[in-house]
Design goal:
The protein has 189 residues and is mostly helical. It has one domain. Helix 1 packs across helix 6 and helix 3 packs across helix 4. The protein starts with 5 loop residues before the first helix and ends with a helix.
């Protein structure tokens, strides 16, 4: 990893996560849900892949990232459908298992950028229609002091690991793994 990129990785990602977390705390989970849809880990990964591996690698990884967003949608659906029955730990495990199975299936299918885009659009629409509706609950629980640093460190670790392993993973797998639901999982739990 070029030395000049490492400081960016150590600053940009945690700042994005900190800003998103503080916005959620200030304006609530409704805004947080919308914010969690932003590519808070996959965007830095994509940028750093383009800088370190070149634009062709990053362009190929973009297809994987779109397919990874389909797996993220499956995670959301499974988590949302099981949360009432399994609690946060069971729902997180079920969602991550579904994410992994979906990634495995998607990694075996060669896809074009346009097909991946169409698939993610359809999957997001289906998940939005299939998620259960809930009443907004306001929690009076203050997050522990370690919450924000843990979120920042987790997301930064994902970016560092994916960009360090990108050459070995290849563009498709690097892209598939970039939307891993680190921030979303912490937000959901």
């Amino acid at each position: 990893m070029p030395v000049e990129i490492l400081p960016l990785k150590l600053v940009v990602t945690p700042l994005l996560i900190a800003a998103a977390t503080l916005v959620v705390r200030r304006w609530g989970h409704g805004v947080g849900g919308w914010l969690a849809g932003f590519p808070l880990t996959s965007a830095p990964v994509s940028i750093f892949l383009a800088i370190e591996q070149g634009p062709d690698f990053a362009a190929s990884a973009a297809t994987g990232t779109l397919l990874g967003l389909t797996a993220m949608a499956v995670f959301c659906l499974v988590y949302g459908r099981t949360a009432r029955h399994l609690g946060w730990a069971g729902s997180a495990a079920a969602g991550l298992a579904a994410f992994g199975v979906c990634l495995g299936a998607l990694s075996a299918v060669p896809a074009s950028l346009s097909a991946a885009f169409a698939l993610v659009c359809v999957s997001l629409g289906l998940v939005a229609a299939l998620l259960p509706t809930t009443k907004a609950a306001v929690s009076g629980v203050r997050p522990p002091a370690w919450d924000l640093p843990l979120r920042m460190a987790s997301a930064t670790a994902v970016v560092l690991l994916l960009t360090a392993a990108a050459r070995h993973l290849g563009p498709m797998l690097s892209g598939l793994l970039s939307p891993i639901p680190v921030f979303l999982l912490v937000l959901a739990v």
